[in-house]
Specification:
By secondary structure, this protein is an alpha/beta fold. It has helices spanning about 15-25, 55-65, 85-90, 100-110, 125-140, 145-160, 175-190, 200-210, 215-225, 235; strands at about 5-10, 30, 35, 50-55, 70-75, 75-80, 95-100, 115-120, 165-170. It binds adenosine-5'-diphosphate and guanosine-5'-monophosphate. The site of adenosine-5'-diphosphate has 15 residues, from helix 1, helix 5 and helix 7.
């Protein structure tokens, strides 16, 4: 049975790592590709678990040796997926999940158009800012410039949402986890004929509702809040020092 390649992208702080970690607890047979990065470890991150941490020099050597399926520069650091992650998952017949940015996702889609791509959005800039700040506090490093940079970058990433097959708006965590799980199960059903038992109809309905073509109603308020559709949200994008939401 051929494994399915899932790509998940999201603006930083949207909750993608949280969702992926919940998915991995609840769904078996899906591997997570540990990327290479030149950024420094954050909080409790461990080399080889969240990322393979390396130097820019070493990363550039790996690029020259064609080690990467895709790579991109994000927030001033290089990130890349090694080809062998895909080869190993394929050999084992496992599904593989890539947590990569919009540039990397475009590279993978052009090489492997059968990949299933999922874009996660935060509900609005205010929630995103709160999540970014809470995470930084939990990790003991609040860097306001970095927060500001990630918040500003969010809208330009969200503008790419139409390149993805499924859209999740990560508002209520449990619901978003259930939607992500439904997408994985539905794709296994469509591609491999894998049975999804009694809950099958509901699972397929949930996954279908997350497809890009069925997402307009859920996505519209997010685009408005980020100032991508109309001008209503432009004010919210201004990163003010406020204390009302955290
Ligand atoms: P990302 O991987 O997209 O950068 P994280 O998974 O690290 O984001 O989440 C950023 C912060 O938001 C974390 O503190 C996480 O616990 C919190 N978070 C994630 N999803 C939700 C949610 N649906 N509701 C509230 N907080 C969330
Ligand atoms: P962070 O530094 O917050 O862990 O990740 C920053 C961004 O880099 C996120 O959007 C994340 O998806 C992306 N990223 C992580 N690994 C890779 C990778 O291997 N390739 C690409 N292109 N992006 C990655």
């Amino acid at each position: 049975m051929a494994g399915i390649l899932f790509i998940i992208s999201a603006p930083s702080g949207s909750g993608k790592s949280t969702l992926v970690s919940e998915l991995r607890k609840q769904v078996s047979g899906i591997e997570f590709a540990v990327s290479w990065t030149t950024r420094a470890p954050r909080g409790s991150e461990e080399n080889g678990r969240e990322y393979n941490f390396t130097s820019r020099e070493e990363f550039e050597r790996m690029i020259a040796e064609d080690v990467f399926l895709e790579y991109a520069e994000v927030f001033g650091n290089l990130y890349g997926t090694a080809r062998h992650s895909l080869d190993e998952a394929r050999a084992a017949g496992h599904d593989l999940l890539l947590d990569i940015d919009v540039q990397g996702a475009a590279q993978v889609r052009s090489r492997l158009p059968e990949a299933v791509s999922i874009f996660v959005m935060p509900p609005n800039p205010t929630v995103l800012r709160t999540r970014l700040r809470n995470r930084s506090r939990a990790e003991g490093v609040v860097n306001e410039d970095e927060l500001f940079r990630r918040l500003r970058q969010a809208s330009s990433e969200i503008e790419n949402y139409e390149q993805y097959g499924y859209i999740l708006v990560n508002d209520v965590l449990d619901r978003t986890v259930a939607q992500l799980e439904a997408i994985v199960q539905a794709e296994r059903f469509y591609r491999n004929g894998e049975p999804i038992a009694i809950r099958s109809r509901r699972v397929l309905e949930v996954a279908t509702g997350c497809e890009l073509r069925n997402s307009q109603e859920r996505v519209k308020p997010v685009l408005e809040a980020f100032g991508i559709l109309g001008n209503t949200g432009q004010q919210e994008l201004k990163f003010e020092e406020d204390s009302d939401d955290d």
